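Whiteboard transcription, Tuesday session. T.W. wrote the structure tokens on the left side:
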């Protein structure tokens, strides 16, 4: 007769596992000796090895007893069912792994590939990560509300970056975002922005205006700029003095 420790050793499990199987009803409680200790026979070792083997194969403990009592045909059917379940779990975990791999770069989180490509173009142009993070957060909001329009939005943004004037502006905007709200360079910067707006008014702006963004989304996107950039309200005021209003939804007054 074996003690619980010896039983566990023979079957290659821990004493805690044996007690757990007792609690789950997978192994009957053995008789105890006069000192109150459990004593196990060779049959108990064989049963425990079967339980361990099924558990290691991924069989849920709730079904182990069923398989132990099954005849060969019932066992085959049950094993097929369990195998199908495990295959489904493996496919699901593989999808999770693929998604995690995609998210490793950061930009892929909640953004379609075309938006990620646009952000990569900004990096290649030397735009700082701080400005890119602001763009990413804004486009995440847009993609959540208007996913079907993201390919065209990104095409339009890409067309803007093809213009050397716009590309240079992104670099200067990085520097300007560090200025204080009363920086004397701001009026000239606003003049430059207005010149860009007027140069693209008959092309890009018309294409953007074809998509009417919901007012609540516009307000939310504007708030991202206003909350993150100290000079934002001053700059918007200067633009309004020059006949333009809005940030996300730019319009001539």
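and on the right, the sequence the group agreed on:
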């Amino acid at each position: 007769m074996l003690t619980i420790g010896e039983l566990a050793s023979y079957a290659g499990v821990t004493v805690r596992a044996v007690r757990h199987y007792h609690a789950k009803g997978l192994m009957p409680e053995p008789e105890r000796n006069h000192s109150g200790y459990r004593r196990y026979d060779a049959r108990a070792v064989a049963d425990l090895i079967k339980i361990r083997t099924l558990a290691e194969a991924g069989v849920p403990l709730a079904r182990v007893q069923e398989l132990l009592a099954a005849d060969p045909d019932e066992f085959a059917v049950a094993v097929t069912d369990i195998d199908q379940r495990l295959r489904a779990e493996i496919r699901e975990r593989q999808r999770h792994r693929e998604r995690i791999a995609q998210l490793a770069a950061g930009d892929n989180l909640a953004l379609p590939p075309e938006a990620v490509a646009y952000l990569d173009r900004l990096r290649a142009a030397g735009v700082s990560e701080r400005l890119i993070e602001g763009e990413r957060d804004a486009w995440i909001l847009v993609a959540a509300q208007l996913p079907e329009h993201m390919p065209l939005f990104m095409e339009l943004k890409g067309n803007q970056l093809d213009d050397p004037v716009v590309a240079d502006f992104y670099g200067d905007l990085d520097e300007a975002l560090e200025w204080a709200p009363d920086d004397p360079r701001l009026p000239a910067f606003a003049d430059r922005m207005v010149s860009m707006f007027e140069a693209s008014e008959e092309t890009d702006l018309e294409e953007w205006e074809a998509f009417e963004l919901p007012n609540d989304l516009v307000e939310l996107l504007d708030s991202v700029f206003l909350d993150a950039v100290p000079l934002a309200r001053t700059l918007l005021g200067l633009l309004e003095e020059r006949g333009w209003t809005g940030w996300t939804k730019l319009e001539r007054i």
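Someone added at the bottom: The chain has 13 helices and two strands.
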